[in-house]
């Protein structure tokens, strides 16, 4: 499953900040340098979805705040259910 996210780096804490239509907002405390924010995004998403480390990957937008992540272990319905996302 592919999921569009918008990252807010250098935030006060790591968390899921809610939905902007079909895009998930993710806040991370890590700065956007040397891949630190990307690594934090992956960890936040893995924790939120209850997945093991390394199961979420960024497939588009590694240097942008708008990213696409791949979640191969879950269906779209499971992802939205776990994140209380928009009904599909």
What would a concise description of this structure say?
The protein has helices spanning 36-49, 76-82, and strands spanning 2-8, 15-20, 23-27, 57-60, 66-70.
Short descriptors:
88 residues, alpha+beta, Conserved Hypothetical Protein Mth637, Chain: A
What does this structure look like?
With 88 residues, the protein is an alpha+beta fold. The chain has a single domain, classed as Conserved Hypothetical Protein Mth637, Chain: A. The protein is 24% helix and 31% strand. A five-stranded mixed beta sheet has the order 2-3-1-5-4, with helices on one face. It is globular and about 30 Å long.
CATH topology call: Conserved Hypothetical Protein Mth637, Chain: A
Distance between the termini: 13 Å
The ordered string of helix (H) and strand (E) elements is EEEHEEH
For the record, what CATH class applies? Alpha Beta
Number of strands: 5
Strand content is 25-35%
DSSP helix fraction: 10-25%
Tally of domains: 1
Task: Examine the secondary-structure arrangement and name the CATH architecture.
Answer: 2-Layer Sandwich
- What is the global morphology? globular
Helical stretch count?
2
| Main sheet: strands, sense, barrel | 5 strands, mixed
* Helix and strand composition category: alpha+beta
Mean pLDDT rating: 94
């Amino acid at each position: 499953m592919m999921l569009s996210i918008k990252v807010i780096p250098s935030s006060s804490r790591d968390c899921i900040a809610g939905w902007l239509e079909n895009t998930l907002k993710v806040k991370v405390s890590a700065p956007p340098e040397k891949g630190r924010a990307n690594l934090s995004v992956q960890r936040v998403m893995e924790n939120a979805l209850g997945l093991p480390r390394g199961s979420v990957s960024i497939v588009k937008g590694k240097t942008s705040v708008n990213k696409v992540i791949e979640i191969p272990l879950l269906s779209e319905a499971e992802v939205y259910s776990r994140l209380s996302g928009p009904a599909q």
